[in-house]
């Protein structure tokens, strides 16, 4: 017993003590996260309330909020469905070229965002490989809000796949076999056995994909077209304000994006915690 306690105690001492580790953690987070975010708020507080309200509620800025957050939510929702299917195929099936397909999932991580934006624009423009056929049926992707959704779906896919994939790999196949032996159909097995176990992972992937998409700039700026009131994204306004040396206006818009993103992510985390609590009952 004493040997077991000593081994656990020595294992806990592999990393320096709690005080030093906690101090380093807080310092690191403050340096990389808290100080930059605090600077945004402090710079914004130099504005009067009327100036702040005018900067963040102009008609064009409001239209950009609707596009940025709406497209981010839609892209993340699309990835929950199709990213879940991709993760399922990669885990449950063996087929030629599986490793290649698995590597392709990480391509949006490795590809520079500007390259992704130019590539998507070339593919979905009216004379592109895909866009020319969509244009014949009246669907225009490039330089429209639909193009923004396509770009945000592209960059968000790996977050869902890589979050759901390990959960599916660790899933107990015995539960599925037991459900089948009791007469459950494949659909019933999926809905009542498999889906509850992967819902928290799907929500995590959704939150990560949304967080990445909400502030995305490089992959969107080319395919969006940046038409006023139609396809202007909020990060573009921040860049424009900075180029005009309007730092307070840029930080004001950034604060709004930060607060809205935080509220949405907090709500998703609450939903995720509630789902896990229900699944544990």
Write a structural description.
The protein is an all-alpha fold and 281 residues long. It has 14 helices and no strands. The longest helix has 34 residues, at 59-92. The model has no long low-confidence stretch (mean pLDDT 86).
Summarize the structure.
The protein has helices spanning 2-12, 18-44, 49-56, 59-92, 98-105, 107-110, 113-124, 131-136, 145-170, 173-181, 186-214, 218-224, 234-243, 247-280. The protein is built from 14 helices and no strands. Helix 4 runs parallel beside helix 9 (145-170), helix 7 (113-124) crosses helix 9 and helix 9 (145-170) packs across helix 11 (186-214).
Report the sheet with the most strands, covering strand number, pairing sense and barrel closure. Answer: none
Following the backbone from N to C, one meets helices and strands in this order, namely HHHHHHHHHHHHHH
Uncertain spans: none
Radius of gyration: 23 Å
Percent range of helical residues: over 70%
Number of helices: 14
Shape: globular
Which whole number gives the mean pLDDT?
86
Query: Span between N and C termini?
Result: 34 Å
Strand composition percent: under 5%
Structural class: mainly alpha
């Amino acid at each position: 017993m004493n040997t077991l306690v000593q081994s656990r105690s020595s294992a806990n001492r592999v990393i320096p003590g709690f005080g030093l580790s906690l101090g380093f953690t807080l310092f690191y987070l403050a340096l990389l996260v808290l100080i930059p975010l605090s600077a945004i708020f402090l710079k914004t507080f130099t504005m009067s309330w009327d100036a702040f309200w005018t900067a963040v509620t102009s008609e064009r800025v409001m239209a950009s909020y609707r596009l940025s957050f709406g497209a981010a939510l839609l892209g993340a929702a699309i990835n929950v469905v199709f990213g879940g299917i991709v993760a399922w195929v990669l885990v449950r099936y063996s087929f030629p070229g599986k490793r290649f397909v698995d590597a392709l999932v990480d391509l949006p991580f490795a590809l520079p965002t500007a390259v992704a934006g130019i590539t998507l624009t070339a593919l979905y423009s009216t004379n592109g490989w895909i866009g020319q056929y969509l244009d014949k049926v009246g669907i225009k992707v490039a330089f429209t809000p639909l193009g923004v959704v396509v770009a945000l779906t592209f960059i968000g896919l790996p977050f869902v796949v890589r979050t759901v994939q390990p959960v599916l790999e660790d899933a107990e196949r015995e539960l599925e076999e037991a459900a089948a032996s009791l007469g459950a159909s494949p659909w019933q097995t999926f809905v009542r056995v498999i889906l509850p176990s992967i819902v928290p992972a799907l929500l995590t992937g959704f939150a990560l994909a949304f967080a990445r998409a909400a502030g995305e700039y490089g992959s969107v700026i080319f395919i969006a077209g940046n038409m006023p009131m139609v396809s202007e994204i909020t990060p573009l306004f921040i860049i424009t304000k900075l180029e005009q040396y309007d730092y307070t206006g840029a930080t004001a818009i950034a604060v709004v994006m930060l607060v809205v993103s935080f509220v949405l992510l907090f709500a998703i985390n609450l939903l995720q915690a509630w789902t896990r609590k229900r699944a544990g009952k």
